[in-house]
Amino acid sequence: MSGARDVARAIDALRRGWPIAIHAPGEPPLPLLAVETADPCGRETFMTGGVGPLLISDGRAATLKLTNQLAAADPDTPVVIEAAPWLDFSTAVALADPQFDLATPLKGPFRTTAVTRPAASLAAIRLARIAGLLPAFFIDGSGPEVTIAPAAIDAHQDARALHLATRARLPVDGAEDAEIVAFRAPDSSDEHVALLIGQPDGNPPLVRLHSECLTGDVLGSLKCDCGPQLRAAIAAIAANGWGILLYLRQEGRGIGLVNKLRAYALQDQGFDTVDANVRLGFAIDSRDFGVAARMLDLLGQRAVRLMTNNPAKVAGLEAAGVSVVERVPHQLPPNPHNARYLATKRDRTGHQL
Ligand SMILES: Nc1nc2c(ncn2[C@@H]2O[C@H](COP(=O)(O)OP(=O)(O)OP(=O)(O)O)[C@@H](O)[C@H]2O)c(=O)[nH]1
Ligand SMILES: [Zn+2]
After folding, report:
1. Which of 78, 254, 345, 350 shows the greatest Cβ crowding within 10 Å of its Cβ?
2. Is residue 331 annotated as involved in ligand binding?
3. Residues 240-247: what's their mean pLDDT?
4. Class for domain 159-250+287-349, per CATH?
5. Region(s) of the chain under CATH 3.90.870.10
6. Residues with CB under 6 A from ligand 1
7. Residue pair 306/315 in contact by the 8 Å Cβ criterion
8. 273 known ligand binder
9. CATH placement of domain 1-155
């Protein structure tokens, strides 16, 4: 219980620009201040004697070509950039945020060292993603009032904590016979919903897992296929007679809206959707489909016909105990703006198109 409270306080602190510490068993504590939110006052309190050191993710370090200095570094382990006289705050921001890569050629040299607190460092990168922040931190300063354990971060957003909050009739465009069911978990403000369409007929439901995409779902972005996929899924389920659309609050494949838009800025510079995520320091896909399995379980569904082109969704549901009796392709015609995105999904993330 106190672990959950500490993680909530840690996320809040990081987003406000306050320091925290992560204390993994067997390691000294790792004091952290998120680069993205560190204001001058917070920086001054945290760091005495110059800017740094800096903790960045392995993907970001590889992009900056800083991993070759490390003998036999574990590929997933974050990297520490040592403090140096020329490491000022704006240089730290440029090291943290890839959108400045082409505009600001970095002046080093930067010395990197392998992390001495690997468990806490990996947990810090996971916490940045949960907080929706860039995964880059000033480390080893003073002042953290919140200390958390990596295990508490791992327990955060455990799908088992999700419960059914309320339900109501909701006729929607394309499916008038529909009901919305909302789910809540105590440790997250993300409220997932299910749209139950039609009436059960004894067969496994036709199911679509739709991950939130504000730009595509609401604004009609042409950069992805989310909006048309959402509407086509509702139409297909209605035509099938019965099924369930899960609307999962996993914006940007789990990295959050702001980080997804940072990935879009990198795509404007020519990087594809996969490389953009890696350059930012995130996994290619951070979603947890156990949440979807839990929702289906709460709705009494243990076997589904799944509309997707993404084998990871099938595997994720199966791993969480939901039987996928059939994969139903869910592909829509490309447009000039999303053709490359769809090709990247086919060529680099194993989508069956
Ligand atoms: N990080 C990141 N997220 C993106 C990008 N484009 C779309 N998304 C997000 O990707 C998610 C949409 O994925 P899905 O529609 O589930 O697509 P999928 O994983 O390819 O699987 P299927 O459509 O089921 O085949 C949404 O959360 C979008 O916000 C991008 O370029 N970068
Ligand atoms: Zn989208």
Report:
1. 78
2. no
3. 98
4. alpha beta
5. 1-155
6. 211-213, 224, 226, 229, 250-253, 255, 260, 263, 273, 277, 308-310, 313, 330, 345, 351
7. no
8. yes
9. 3.90.870.10
| Predicted TM-score of the model (pTM) | 0.92
**Distance between Cα 341 and ligand 1 center (Å):** 10
User: CA distances (Å), 97 to each of 61, 291, 295, 322, in order?
Assistant: 11, 30, 35, 39
Residue type for position 303: A
Cα 202 to Cα 314: distance, rounded to the nearest angstrom: 22
Decide if the complex's ipTM is over 0.95.
yes
Lowest mean pLDDT among 153-162, 171-180, 217-226: 153-162
> How much is the pLDDT for 71?
58
| CA dihedral of residues 116, 119, 122, 123 (deg, nearest 10) | -130
- In tens, the pLDDT along 270-306 reads 999 999 999 999 999 999 999 999 999 999 999 999 9
User: Tokens representing 43?
Assistant: 């920086």
pLDDT one-digit tens code per residue, 3-62:
888 999 999 999 999 999 999 999 999 999 999 999 999 999 999 878 989 999 998 998
> Dihedral (C-alpha) 180, 185, 191, 197: value to the nearest 10 degrees?
-20
